[in-house]
Structure formats: C-alpha cells, structure tokens
Amino acid sequence: IETLIVKDDAKTEKLASKPAVYVDVIRNEEIQAARLKLPILAEEQQIMEVVNDNPVVIIAGETGSGKTTQVPQFLFEAGYALKKQIAVTEPRRVAAISMSQRVALEMNLSSREVSYLIRFEGNVTEDTKIKFMTDGVLLKEVQSDFLLSKYSVVVLDEAHERQRLVFRSVYTDILIGLLSRIVPLRHKRGDPLKLIVMSATLRLEDFTLNRRLFRNPPPVVKVDARQFPVTIHFNKRTNDDYLKDAFNKAVKINTKLPEGGILIFVTGQQEVNSLVRKLRKAFPLRHKEQILERSAELRENGDEDVEEGMRTALRKKRKLKILPEINLDDYSVPGDTEHASDDDDITDEDDSNVEVTTITNAQPLWTLPLYSLLPSHKQQKVFQPPPPGCRLCVVSTNVAETSLTIPGVKYVVDTGKAKVKLYDKVTGVTSYVVHWTSKASADQRAGRAGRTGPGHCYRLYSSAVFNDTFQDYSVPEIQQKPVDDLYLQMKCMNVDKVVNFPFPTAPDLLQLKTAESRLETLGALKAGKVTPLGRAIARFPLLPRYGKMLALSHQQDLLPYTICLVAALSVQEVLLEVPVLQTSLEEKKQTRQRWATTRLQWAGQGNSQLLGDNMVLLKAVGAAEYANTQGKLERFCEENGLRHKAVVEIRKLRLQLTNEIKNNVPDAEVVVDPKLEPPTDLQAKLLRQVLLSGMGDQIARKISLDEVKEGEDKARFKYAYQANNMEEPVFLHQGSVLKKLLPQFVVYQEVYETNKMYMRGVTAIEPEWLPVYVPSLCNLSEPLLSPEPRYDPSTGKVLCTVSGTFGPQAWELPQMEI
Ligand code: ADP
Ligand code: MG
Asked: Who's near 776: CB < 8 A, 6+ residues apart?
C-alpha cells in the first residue's frame, strides 16, 4: 500500500470516472506471465467500467477463467480498498483459505493485507484490504452492521454453487437477498456499496430474471474462457459398478492413450481413497519418484536436510519391508508395494476382495486424492506438475467441478454420480444417497478436459440415461434442507414476513411452516415474533436447537459440558463402529467387543448412565484430551475406536464456541480449558434436561411388547420406540449403550435410515419433565402454574417452577435454574 502511485496512463483515465486513483501492485515476473494467460485479464477494463457504472454486476465465466483470483485484484488496483475493505465470500472454507493465500502471493502482499475469516479461524488484521470469508461469516456481520459499512464492495463468489454438503450452507441465498436491499440503502446514504455476483455460466436467470430480487436486471459480463473442444464419449451400457468402470477406464487411458492428465469424478472421500489405492497399486511409482515424493514431503514439513531425509526415508521403507531391495534403475516396484506417500490419509481399508495386479510396461501414474476435507497443503499438490515421466491422475469429488482448476487435465472420467444429502422436510431425517448428477454438472465436469488443449470426456453411462434421467440442474439446497436457523436469523434481522423475502430461489412454503412451528416449540418464536430466548439462541452459530441448549446451560458448571456435547454432536462419526485397519475377521470382532466394553464403562452408573451415548461422548472427549497431554492422542483414538480427525474437530469447535460465548455473554465466565472432568450425577441429570430442552420435538417412547400386534414378530420390537412425529418405529442403534436399560422415554439427536430407522445421540428423560420443556406436545389435565420457563435477559438465566398432573401421575418439580 505504501507504493500508492497515481498513474497517468490510459488505464487510469478510463477508471478515473469513479475512484480517481490507481493503486500499483508490483508482481513478480513469473506470476505476471501466468496471469496474462488468463482469459479474464483481457476483460479487466470492461469489467471495471461496468462495475464503476453499476451498483450490481454479474460476472459469469467458466471455471478456471480467473474470476476468483483476479477480480479482487482488479478492484484493489482500481482503488476500492483505499478507504474500505473488499469482501469476497466463498461457499467453501478451503476456497477462502487457499484463494486468500494465492491472491496474497500474486500481489506480493502479506496475509495481514489479504486475509481470510472462516468459522474456526482467520488472520484478519486492521491492515486487511481484501478479505476472503465464508458466506456464513458475512451473514453474521450483516446482523451486527446491516449496512456492511466497512466494505466498499462485496464479491459473492460461486453464486451458482447453492448445493453443498457443508454445515449450514444456504447462506448465499439470503446474502443475495439482503444485499439486493442493502445496495440501494447505501446508495441513498451517498456511500455506495458495489455488489459483484460471480458465477459459472449456470442458472444466471435466477439472478437476472427475478424481479423481486433486482428490479432492474443487472448487467452480465461474460468471460469467454479459452475452451478447447472436448470429445464426449458415452458408454454403450450403464453398469452398476461405476468404480470398477472408472478404474478400467483409467487403466486404458494410461496404457493406450497419449500424454495428458486424468481427472476422475467420484462421489465421496471413501471412494476417492479406494480408487487412489487401486490405481497406485496398478501403476506404482518407480523407486526414484518415491524418494522424490518422500523428500518433497520432508521439505514441506520443514526438514532442512533433505539428503539425510531421503536416506532416512529409504531406511524406514526398508525396515518396514515396504520397499524391497531393488536396483535404483528398476522400472517398477512389485504389486504389493504401498505408495510412497504413506501419510496422505489413504489408509488400508477392506478392499481385499478386489484383485489389483501391477501393470508393467506402462507409465507410472502420479495419483492424487482431492476432496474438501483434505488438508489444504495436500490439496495444493494438484497444482504442481507431476514428477518427470509420470502421468498426473487426480481422483476427486465434485470439488474439482467448479471450485478448483487442476492444470494439465486432458482426460475426464465422469461416473455421473454425486452424493446428495437428503432431508425429509417434516422430520429432518437425513440420508445420503448416491444419485445421478445434473446435465449442467456433467457438462462442467467435461469442460475440465479442455483447459489446456483438446480433450476427451468419458462418461460411464449411456446417452439414453443422460437424456432421460439427468435433471437439467441440481436443486438448490435451500429447497432441500430444514431452514430453521435461516428463519430465526431472518426474524432477528427484523424480516417480518420471511415468506416475502426476495430469495433467488424461494424455499417452499411447507419448509417455512415447519421451521416456524419447530421454532415455536423451542420457544424461540411466539406468535410470529422472536422471543428473548430466541434472541439468546440466535447468538450461537448453530442450529437453533443447539443454540437453545447453550442458552439454557448458562451456568458456570454446566456450560463446558454442553459446549462439549454440542461440539461432539456437530461432528459426524466420532465413535467408529467397525475397525478400519485391515485385520482378520476374528481380530475385528474382538476389537469391536473391546470398544463396546469401554463404552459401557464410560456410560457409568445412575444419572450418568441415563445420559447414554452422550455420556460416552463426554467421557471419550475428556479421556482423549488427557491422552493428548501425554502425546498419545492418535494411539488412544485407534485403541478406543474414535475417529482421530473427529476428535481434533471437536476440540476446535469447543474452543470456538467457548470463545464465542465469552465474547457474547460476558458474565458466563467460561474458560478455555480442554480438560473435562466427568459430570457429577446431578450435573448429568441437568444435562439430560438441557438435551430435552433442545430436542423436545424429537421424543420417542418405548413400544411395550403388549402393544405389538398379533402376528408381528415380537423380537423385532425389543429395541423399538415410537417417535412423536413418525409412524414407523425407530430403533436404538447397534452401538447404543442404552440397549441395556431400555428407558421409557428418550430424546434423540437424529434419525437415520439404513435397513431400519435408527436413532442417533439418544438420552433417557423423565416423563414429568415433558410439560416443562415441551408443553405443546403434552395432554395436560390441569393448567400449569408457570407453563413457560422465564428467561431473564439481565442474568441470562432461565427459571421455572412447575407443578401439576400429567396423566394419572401427580408430579412436582423443584424450581429449576438452568
Ligand atoms: P475461476 O475462479 O474463474 O474458476 P481461478 O481464479 O480460481 O478461476 O483460477 C485461475 C487460475 O489460477 C487457474 O488456472 C488455477 O489453476 C490457478 N490457481 C488457482 N489457485 C492456485 C494455486 N494455489 N496455485 C497455483 N495455481 C492456482
Ligand atoms: Mg472461482
């Protein structure tokens, strides 16, 4: 920024209409040369003219044309960061981090000036000029400063990407709606805000033809990417085993077809790993490249003495019998050899039924995995050229569809599938299904083959399937998942009639109604207005039910537990069911038994025990933290069947939530302390009430065997429950510690469907608590003395005194303060 120079060239004149300055950026030559090859650079002047002259602009361009990395730089050079900041939102966390780093590098600026802010972390400073963030972060900022007054321009990137699998991802939709109102407001104040919506060339009409959103259709600048022709090859037949097909296709390409990288699209992390493993087995790297890769890793890990590192690597491999003694010039390593990069998360899972033999006389394949949870330095590998003599092969989820552009890809293998999280609109039951992608996605995928030259796309399905079965576009996520958090946030922003909000694609009425009624049940809304409790809930960056649990745990000795529980419940698959390491069946069985015994011990006795699987989670986290202080976390996780990454994520979330509460609720006096003593019996009881308070709409009652109809198999109903909002029975899942107790009433976190409907995150509750927390679900014969918990905003506490009758039983609760 010190090198602020007002230039006197043509460009400055053109731009002089608005910001009269041109901020010079000094880039290194190599970077500048690479930039000049990007199609968007030729459009800089046109883009900036349109931006200067219009409040809202849409930039549409193929993936890889340079939108994300270049547009923020254009804005910076045109002076948009002189007085205020430039905001860029990304739907994916990894994109926010990696793009901020890339742009900083290209501009020769530090991370103090080009920074990022995501849910868990950030490096924003007071010197920040360009700020990459997730759309959720910007939405939070709208709530504290509706006019977004610290920004001169907001760039909403990947606006087409409205279907994502990450946590709370309908933000882009609300942001666009809100910004369509903020822009004119800022204009009225004489402090204009620019809005730039960037998108692949998909569904543009959602933005341009929606008169409720923008009264005057905003101008669209199209960036023509240099796209080479891609020949599409359909399969004659559509086979079920698309992974096997993909493998065979990759083998064919590598053995028969000319030079050029391969990009394979599959549906999830596991498929990526399994295919990478097979391809590495089939086309192993030569010895030299293994060492090369190993040394690159050592260098990456800050190991200065690479020579020594290589020798160590060699020794290590020999000792582990991974590398047999071979001549350095030997062409390939025998088939049972593992790939050299032994720490890139490609663990050995049970693929033993698949025979893969090493294919000799073929080029070694530089096979890399790519998925969004892969650590970002490992993702960066796909941007580097493969070692000499190797062909690049990236196996990816749909991350590579629009977010990241991999150089040098000539062959795309498209399985045509994507993993979709399906939600039942009423119950919120989630299930993952592998489904056909859309025509638009398939075309995006094919396009990846034509970035550097003419390419080929192999579609592993027939043209008939494509034409008849594929939808044109994927359904935006806002139309698929519960919108509770969105609804509450909008109510807090005083959007009175959410139904009338200018969504680019409106969620359907049923969803909005369901959200509203769930929020009423939680006590966050009353007669359509947000309650003080609702506001307390909305302060937490979580689904309202979890927000409520935190709001009610507003008591020093309970918050750490609830924070831990909420963190653990937000992370998928903490407790493993099946050992992943390849062992014999007998060993696997023993391991599972050992895990089950430990979990029963963790569940404890008395009220602790009734906390069920959630007690197991609390103890697991506490014990893991202890193991961590001893430097034995990974081993501990392995021995006790905890997913290591999940434990790390839980810790991050706990820290984040603790800080959040500290900042928002000054009297909470929470301290960031990873240590977690097991709760006492009383605390365990209160925690059960807290869980009920958040999950009161997800109650299930044990089905007694007398209720089972004649002719039905009674044994089937041993672990069966009747949920309050479902007809089908739901079951305690296999690993649940509550199977020993079979409590009369439980609340559950989630129901998922495999062969049956199973409950996850189950806690036993006492029936007399129901009228306190979920009066709307009870049939009360006597009026309650104090039917609502009273929330006292000054102390942040919730008090209630309740007595009455519930069915034939009389009950009374002491005054509770939770
Ligand atoms: P778009 O947003 O239009 O899809 P990008 O700005 O993301 O395009 O990418 C432009 C170019 O920059 C691509 O060729 C991509 O490969 C390259 N690129 C992006 N990130 C990196 C990185 N971290 N390292 C090297 N090249 C990168
Ligand atoms: Mg981009």
From this structure: 520, 521
Q: How far apart are CA 525 and CA 605, in angstroms?
A: 37
- Residue whose Cα lies nearest atom 18 of ligand 1: it is 405
Atom of ligand 1 nearest to the CA of 69: 6
Distances from the Cα of 432 to the Cαs of 23, 113, 418, 421, in angstroms?
49, 40, 10, 5
Read off the DSSP letter of residue 553: T
CA angle at 127 for the pair 124 and 128, rounded to the nearest 5°: 45
Q: Quick check: ipTM above 0.95?
A: yes
Distance 389 CA to ligand 1 centre (A): 25
Half-sphere exposure of 627 (CA within 13 A, CB side): 19
Query: Could you tell me the two tokens for 276?
Result: 């990478």
Which of 102, 196, 398 for mutating ligand 1's site (highest number of atoms within 8 Å of CB)?
Answer: 102
Q: How far apart are CA 785 and CA 803, in angstroms?
A: 7
Collapse the DSSP code of 680 into the 3-class scheme (helix H, G, I; strand E, B; otherwise coil) and give the result: coil
pLDDT at 354: 54
- Point out the ligand 1 atom lying closest to the alpha carbon of residue 70: 6
Q: How far is CA 698 from the centre of its chain?
A: 24
Beta strands per DSSP E along 182-260: 194-199, 220-223, 230-234
455-459 and 409-414 as β-strands: parallel, antiparallel, unpaired?
Answer: parallel
Separation of CA 65 and ligand 1 centre (Å): 8
Q: In sequence order, which residues have a C-beta less than 8 Å from that of residue 4 and are 6 or more positions away?
A: 21, 23, 24, 82
The residue contributing the CA closest to ligand 1 atom 21 is 102
What Å distances lie between residue 75 and 68, 149, 175, CA to CA? Answer: 12, 17, 20
CA of 786 relative to ligand 1 center, distance in Å:
60
Q: What dihedral do alpha carbons 54, 58, 63, 69 form, nearest 10°?
A: 30
Return the half-sphere exposure (C-beta side, CA atoms, 13 A cut-off) of residue 109: 26
Residue to mutate (ligand 1; options 405, 409, 451, 452; most atoms within 8 A of CB): 405
CB 334 within 8 A of CB 280: no
8 Å CB contact between 543 and 600 = no
**Is the full-model pTM beyond 0.80?**
no
Query: Residue 590: phi, psi to the nearest 5?
Result: -60, -45
Q: Which residues line the pocket of ligand 1, CB cutoff 6 A? A: 38, 61, 63-70, 98, 102, 380, 383, 405, 407
pLDDT along the chain (818 residues), means of 10: 37 45 88 92 94 94 91 97 95 83 95 87 90 88 89 92 46 85 94 92 72 86 85 94 96 95 93 94 76 57 47 44 27 26 39 65 89 75 87 91 85 92 52 81 91 93 94 70 81 84 81 88 88 80 79 73 86 81 81 92 91 93 92 93 89 79 66 82 90 87 84 88 85 90 90 87 86 66 47 57 38 37
448/399 Cα distance (integer angstroms): 12
- State which residues have CB under 5 angstroms from ligand 2, the bound ion: 68
Per-residue model confidence (pLDDT) at position 430: 52
CA pair distance 62, 443, nearest whole angstrom: 11
- Please report how the helices 559-570 and 681-695 are oriented relative to each other, as an axis angle in degrees rounded to 10: 50
CA torsion, ordered 540, 546, 552, 556, to nearest 10 deg: -70
Judged by DSSP in three states, 277 sits in helix
560-584 core/surface letters (b: 16 or more CB in 10 A; e: else): bbbbbbbbbbbbeebbbeebeeeee
pLDDT the model gives residue 315? 47
